[in-house]
Amino acid sequence: MSYELLIFAPIALSLLIYMPTRNVGGTKYVALALFVYMFIKTIELYKQLPEHGYMLLGKFLEVKAFDFVLTLQVDRLSVIMLLLTSVLLILVTLSSWSLTKKPAAYFSLLIFFSGAIFGMFMSTNFIWFFIFWELTLIPMLFLVGIWGAEGRIYAAVKFFLYTHVASMLILLAFFLIYKQSGTFDMTLVKEAMLTTPALIWWLMFIGFAVKMPLFPFHTWLPDAHVQAPAPVSALLAGVLLKMGAYAMMRMVILLLPAQAEKFAWIFVVLGLLTLLYAGFMALYETHIKKMVAYSSISHMGLIAIAMGAMSYDSLSAALFEMIGHALIISPLFLIAGFLHQKMHTWEMGDMGGIMQKAPYLSAIFVLAGLGALGLPGTMGFIGEITILISAIESFGSWMVVILLGSLISAAYLIWTFRRVIYGEMSEGVKNGNFSMNRVEFFALLVFAFFIILFGVYPQTLFSEINQAFSVYFTGAAL
Amino acid sequence: MSAFTTLFAFGLLSFAIRSRLLLKLLSLLVLVVAGYLALNSYTLPLNGFSLTSGVALFEVVLFIVLGAAILNEDENINVTQTIFIGTASVALLESNTLLNFIISFEALSIISFVLVANVKNATEASGAVKMFIAGSIATAFIVLGAAFYLFENHPLNATLENVEMFGTVGLWLMLMGLFYKLTIVPMHTWAADSYAEIKASHAALLSGAAKTVAAIAVFKTFSPFLLQNLEFNTPILVALAIITMTLGNFLALFQKKVAKILAYSSIAHAGYMLLAFVAVKSAYASTSLLYIAIAYVFMQSALFTLIGNLKENASELSLEDLKGLGEKDKITALIFTVQLFSLAGVPLLAGFISKAVLVYAVVDADLPIVALVTLLNSALSVAYYAWIVKHVYFDEASLDYELKSLRFAPLMAQFILLGGTIYFGVFAFGVFNVAL
Description:
The structure holds two protein chains of two kinds.
Chain A: H1 5-18, H2 27-48, E1 55-63, E2 68-74, H3 76-95, H4 103-122, H5 126-135, H6 137-147, H7 152-181, H8 197-211, H9 220-227, H10 230-253, H11 257-262, H12 264-284, H13 288-309, H14 312-343, H15 354-357, H16 359-373, H17 379-395, H18 402-421, H19 427-431, H20 438-456, H21 458-474
Antiparallel strand pairs in A: 1-2
Chain B: H1 3-14, H2 20-39, H3 53-72, H4 76-94, H5 98-117, H6 122-150, H7 165-182, H8 189-197, H9 200-228, H10 230-253, H11 258-278, H12 285-310, H13 325-328, H14 330-344, H15 350-364, H16 368-394, H17 408-426, H18 429-432
């Protein structure tokens, strides 16, 4: 099978599923089968990767006059992101197993999203990268707008517009790159070819900072997270934000290293502000999903700091934390959504004592929460400690200020455990039925498994992650 | 034999055909023949007309769009007039002297007036009258400008080069007149009302086909003049383009009627098209204009036709009326949404890549700030397109939902136009391999 079909087949399939069906539930099986297949193909791809650099998968739809070519090339960094994405798509599908509202449309949108996101991670032509980057917005707009909570329409439109405006800056940067370098191929562009690298850097930085998101470009995310259905929130946190971080890493750091070094302080300042601001907002929140949303944003601040450190260790730590963030925040969103579904409240004050009614679910929530606050034995700890060490190595010992972020995380998460999981059982919990669909619970177990696995054996992941960056720091040819 | 003579001859013959089905079938056949002739470079056999590969491509696109329009038509006279619009468009596109340009342009204008004069109610009459008045003013400007230009003893059968002061004034007066037709601000005021008030299928032809034909012809004719004095011409064009797209987009934001939104969107798109004139020194300028013209003619024709299909009195179709369309009529809703997304510049659709090439042409002409303003305008436009989609998909159908479902022929017409939007959104090489 040609690899371009991994992109276009899901997009076509999504329409094929949507048009003739009358929202039958069977579409979830199609989605699951497709995502498993995509995962297997990604594993195959991973096995074929060269030790360093890119592997060309093909060139399609070539327009030489504009260097508009769908160039599919992958390296270790992109394949790791593909693996993460395909795993999350499977888990999100499993987490949506009991969905009853328009299931055909819902799963067809997930399928459409999978094609677009695979295209984005596989394409090395700036324009095609941008095309897939933007295409991911369409299914998310509908997923939030149709299946979201009360304020879904405002959140969906805000998310769409906010991120679209940011994308315009990215597109302008790509055009400037083409004008100055004569190519849209990101593997051929070198910083020295550019006459206005600083302008290009800033345009891309702001564009991608919105997607990550970094303070003060984050305001679209709390609304989207809160209003989106829980599996879509997991997708937002696990995949959509990672798109921003991936692009930031690939284009703002690795493509323009001299500019990135010059403006490294921006990463540190905005990273710290994001970490602390979002942390304090999470501490203030009584709305469980908003708390998780701010926690998610806060952790993206950590990733930004690691990116700013720009060392081999720090970039590896950032990528580890990106994966960790996806695997830790997603179950928190899923459980928060489940609790709302059962109790019809988002207020943590109305919860309490859930451990007594749903001990396994509570255990997973606590485990993910402990991962988020960086408890040793979870992958959150590995991500945070490696970021801390690499930041201190690059910027000096004052970077221990990062620990303040961990302290705040510990405060709001432990307080959340107190209010939601433990404590006196509330009326809502007493009267509630917390039985969960087995498939959906299985998805949560998988998240829990990964959180512990990579917390105890981080080297299994680190050995692969390190290889993604070795080419940039050991001088191996691209 | 050329596309012009074929269409003209059939246009005359069509008055004698009574059966609507036969007329439609023959019209489609003639459009296919005309497309074949255009692709094989059969040009109008008169001095001062020629056919480039880019124009040939656009003519083929135009014939496809006119074919879709004919499929959708319900009166014989409208089919005939559509054929005549095609005839005049071919002449205008193939003209390469000022004289031929003016004659063909006026011919297209007069046929457009005849088309909209076929009114059925007071609203359509109001729209038609506004269009006549605007057209008359535009013609006055064009004639006055031509007089100034000829004052410098330029021959009418040559391209616009070596222009001096009077000639410059004359050509700018002509451009002002032409910009009336292209709905460039401040010559746009008639368009918002006219497009929204005249019959939707007529609005589709005029705001889609006629406008893009005019834009390409004006570019072909005036680009030598614009290139000659870039320092003077570019700032004026930049100002007009930015004001047009910004005002069009802002005013569209506040509309409640779908036809009005599309009318203002059409004005904003005129601003985008003007960017090709702004970037005239770029090697990508003509390709970008050709691309946005192709994309726009598919999108705009589809949307105006569609709203005419959904409601008899399309000018009254409000956003509220669209609530629940996504639930009640999946196919129509999807077509509507895809065309709207294309107008908004969503990728894998013609609207995206055409705008991308256009903005790159502006960057290539060393105007990155103008490019940024354009991109932000495009993002602004997403607000009202997304708002329409919100009504289509996110809102529940109201109890008095009364939109009509599309019959077979209009649905086929929509599929043809949708095919164009998707094809040119994915396969860009066809446009890059030709030149205007």
